[in-house]
């Protein structure tokens, strides 16, 4: 099989995330992604994975590859994207999160209701703990947990001062193993590299960080790989020594 081009937006929040609009149901997210020409999305709610399963199931029904993911806020307040091979692995990661999330009550008036829904948009779960705060683990501990589960680890929106790795720490910790870096939709890719020339050889993703439907596919990343599945996806990040995949941000996006 030859290499094909897939359009991906790998940072999308559902109605379970703090400040995620209630319109961000699994079905509406998948339908919006398809309407805008995406081939791959990742569901990356803050500090939780409990709305991923219906997104994956609806994606399978409608022909969209949905990567099981999460955006974790570390103890240092650094946001990191974590991607996993399947729902079973994701559930193991949820056990880790449940043990690391501080027992602080969510304030719906400030951050909205944190609800998970099923494929028909019926509410099936409300997270009472705040998903806004950092977990009780440092970035290295999070990375090691993701790696132990065979996942992919990507520091998020590194161009941002707030919750980006450079803004929070000032540098990438020596020895931190990551598979790519993500930049936000608010920055131009070329401008970012000119301001960070040391990163010119890094794998860079650009994602929407969508909290509303209209933000989905505001930017995207191109994946050149054999098919839309986990093996091809992870190989594009260089997980195999002779991988056939490539990641590229379209020129002019950002």
TrEMBL record:
Pfam families: PHP. InterPro entries: PHP_dom (IPR004013), PHP_domain (IPR052018), Pol/His_phosphatase_N (IPR003141), Pol/histidinol_Pase-like (IPR016195). Residues 8-76 form the Polymerase/histidinol phosphatase N-terminal domain. It comes from the Bacteria. One of its GO terms (molecular function) is 5'-3' RNA exonuclease activity. This is PHP domain-containing protein. It comes from Petrimonas mucosa.
């Amino acid at each position: 099989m030859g290499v094909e081009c897939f359009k991906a937006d790998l940072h999308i929040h559902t109605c379970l995330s703090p400040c995620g609009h209630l319109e961000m149901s699994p079905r509406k997210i998948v339908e919006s992604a398809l309407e805008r020409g995406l081939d791959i999305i990742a569901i990356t709610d803050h500090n939780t994975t409990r709305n991923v399963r219906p997104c994956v199931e609806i994606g399978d029904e409608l022909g969209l590859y949905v990567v099981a993911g999460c955006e974790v806020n570390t103890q240092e307040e650094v946001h990191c994207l974590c991607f996993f091979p399947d729902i079973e692995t994701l559930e193991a990661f949820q056990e880790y999160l449940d043990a690391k999330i501080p027992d602080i009550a969510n304030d719906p008036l400030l951050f909205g209701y944190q609800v998970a829904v099923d494929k028909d948009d019926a509410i099936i779960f409300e997270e009472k703990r705040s998903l806004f705060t950092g977990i009780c683990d440092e970035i290295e501990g999070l990375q090691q947990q993701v790696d132990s589960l065979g996942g992919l680890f990507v520091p998020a929106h590194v161009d941002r001062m707030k919750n980006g790795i450079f803004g929070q720490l000032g540098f990438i910790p020596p020895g931190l193993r990551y598979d790519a870096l993500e930049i936000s939709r608010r920055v131009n890719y070329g401008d970012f590299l000119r301001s960070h020339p040391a990163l010119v050889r890094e794998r860079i993703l650009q994602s929407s960080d969508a909290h509303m439907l209209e933000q989905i596919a505001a930017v995207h990343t191109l994946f050149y790989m054999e098919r839309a599945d986990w093996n091809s996806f992870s190989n594009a990040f260089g997980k195999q020594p002779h991988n056939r995949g490539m990641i590229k941000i379209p020129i002019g996006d950002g």
